[in-house]
Automatic annotation (TrEMBL):
<dbReference type="Pfam" id="PF00248">
    <property type="entry name" value="Aldo_ket_red"/>
</dbReference>
<keyword id="KW-0560">Oxidoreductase</keyword>
<dbReference type="InterPro" id="IPR050791">
    <property type="entry name" value="Aldo-Keto_reductase"/>
</dbReference>
<dbReference type="InterPro" id="IPR023210">
    <property type="entry name" value="NADP_OxRdtase_dom"/>
</dbReference>
<protein>
    <submittedName>
        <fullName>Aldo/keto reductase</fullName>
        <ecNumber>1.1.1.-</ecNumber>
    </submittedName>
</protein>
<feature type="domain" description="NADP-dependent oxidoreductase">
    <location>
        <begin position="19"/>
        <end position="316"/>
    </location>
</feature>
<dbReference type="GO" id="GO:0016491">
    <property type="term" value="F:oxidoreductase activity"/>
</dbReference>
<dbReference type="InterPro" id="IPR036812">
    <property type="entry name" value="NAD(P)_OxRdtase_dom_sf"/>
</dbReference>
Length: 335
């Protein structure tokens, strides 16, 4: 199949595939890493027409950017046909310990140079502030990011988990192409203020965890399932995967499965199709480290949802029915 193209942003537009690939889990957080399978997954994604690859310096830490760079360099596809998105701001040390959120201009410049070196490229297509630094005015951080654009090191700018007020201030400093934030049938609070704001400003939406961190695929069970040993989803860091909350949320997944069965597709495909149906300015980046799940996700782009299907899905997962916060610590989201 051939994936359609979508455009993120209007003041600084970036054309990408309708579906991107989140690469984080290839290196950390979601169980054991397999570099060979990860590179094969990147190659297969490019073959299937997925051109937007998403990473960040803190994944690994640092090793995921190197992996993405290798995946692109060893593929049969031209670098010019790939859009690399990476992020700075969640500062970590090589041993994995967390320093904190850093949006200081001097750090922005240093982080970009380090990411370019690890990726093995001359330019980053989409450079995000991963989390907003409450101690640094957003104008200073985005001002430093704008300098990177002027220097030719970065093509387009993005924010992640920013509030509507922060987005407005950032966009007034330099055009913002995309907001990356969590959005799925399980996470819809951005519809109140953030989504209308970015649409008013002409900023695209890049939903991460569009499958509810895998729960909407139907592969998570009370005993773990796809979230096996060493998977961060089994920790208190993700409250929706714990105890009574997990049981309640899995019941919602069963509702989604009923809609999917009627369509003859998987629960994950119908859930991903719902995200894609939210507008032509929406480009979800489901993450996976295996080719078979990648192929399933790409198949979601061919799933056509009628108005009745969309209504059935929103009835299957009422907006306020999901139990538990998306993070154990919500202090750094929607800042």
């Amino acid at each position: 199949m051939t994936l359609d193209s979508r455009t993120l942003g209007t003041d600084s537009p970036l054309a990408v595939s309708a579906l991107g690939l989140g690469c984080m889990g290839m290196s950390e957080f979601y169980g054991t890493a397999d570099e060979g399978e990860a590179v094969a997954t990147i190659h297969r994604a490019l073959d299937l027409g997925v051109t937007l690859l998403d990473t960040a310096d803190m994944y690994g830490p640092f090793t995921n950017e190197q992996l993405v760079g290798r995946g692109i360099a060893t593929s049969r596809h031209s670098r010019d046909g790939v859009q690399i998105a990476t992020k700075f701001g969640n500062e970590r040390l090589p041993d994995g310990s967390r320093v904190g959120i850093n949006g200081r201009p001097e750090y922005v410049r240093a982080a970009c140079d380090a990411s370019l070196a690890r990726l093995g490229v001359d330019t980053i297509d989409l450079y995000y502030q991963h989390r907003v630094d409450k101690a640094v005015p957003i104008e200073e951080t985005v001002g430093a990011m704008a300098e990177l654009v002027a220097a030719g090191k970065v093509r387009h700018l993005g924010l992640s988990e920013a509030s509507a007020a922060t987005i407005r201030r950032a966009h007034a400093t330099h055009p913002i192409t995309a907001l990356q934030t969590e959005y799925s049938l399980f996470t819809r609070e951005i519809e109140d203020e953030i989504l209308p704001t970015i649409r008013e400003l002409g900023i695209g939406l890049v939903p991460y965890s569009p499958l509810g961190r895998g729960m909407l695929t139907g592969t998570i069970t009370e005993s773990g399932g796809a979230a096996g040993d060493g998977d961060l989803r089994r920790s208190a860091y993700f409250p929706r995967f714990q105890g009574e909350a997990l049981r309640a949320n899995l019941a919602l997944v069963d509702n989604v499965r009923s809609v999917a069965d009627e369509k003859g597709v998987s629960p994950g495909q119908v859930a991903l199709a719902w995200v894609l149906a939210q507008g032509p300015d929406v480009v979800p980046i489901p993450g996976t480290k295996r080719t078979r799940y990648l192929e399933e996700n790409v198949g979601a782009a061919a799933v056509e949802l009628t108005a009745e299907d969309l209504a059935a899905l929103e009835k299957a997962v009422p907006r306020d029915a999901v139990v538990g916060d998306r993070y154990g610590d919500m202090s750094s989201v929607n800042v």
